[in-house]
Amino acid sequence: MKKAMVVRVGKGIGCLLxxxxxxxxxxxxxxxxxxxxxxALEETLDQSxxxxxxxxxxKDSEGLLAAATNGVDVIFCGIYLTYDENPDKVRxxxxxxxxxxxxxxxxxxxxxxxxxxxxxxxQALRLNARYMRLISPELYGGQVTNTIVHYLLKEIANGKTxxxxxxxxxxxxxxxxxxxxxxxxxxxxxxxxxxxxxxxCGGPAITEEELIGFAGSVVHSIPRIDKIGGWKRRLLQxxxxxxxxxxxPAST
Length: 252
What we know:
Layout lengths: L2 E5 L6 H10 L3 E6 L2 H10 L6 E5 L5 H8 L5 E6 L7 H18 L2 E6 L18 E5 L2 E3 L7 H10 L4 E3 L6 E2 L1 E3 H12 L8 E3 L6 E2 H11 L6 E3 L2 H10 L3 H4 L6
Helix pairs in contact: 1-6, 3-4
């Protein structure tokens, strides 16, 4: 891999991927619809000669193609890593990325998180020798902020009451965002890893209550917990319908 393109650098682990790629000596095209985020990335990386930023709409296949035509080997894009993801936008972006891959021969790595809405097609891209799917646990750290685990850790650090959304028996893995970026780059650097689905491993699966307890021990406090269930959960689902798709059903 000599040149990569990271689509939506301001979303999920995009910036971390760019940083790790440049650290490995890979030239990077950072593609985003936010001029502010691109400028911040350039500043963070001290105007690295390995970095080329492109402002554009991720749904614009021609814009993506123009950005990728000058020797891009691999295209990275993260989807459903945060709860504010727009499924329609994701589908359009993946269609555009697939078109670019077909025309340029660039390989594609998708990093897919836990916030995929129920019923949303998991096989958005054809799985062949050019594609790699990485299935990730919920991420924390870095710029991955719009997640349940980020909310929990932030409230605990600030000494505030934590609103608990998950059923107490549900156990989940969590993965540090930097580790996810490192694992993604290691796999993408291995040609034989393409054409497969890989599962990124976090720590041991734990319940939300255990997570809150561990976080509380770090800040030397016992977090206050307000469980969101029953009528509160139904009200939340009525007010924000998408929560019904991304949260497990409440216990009866």
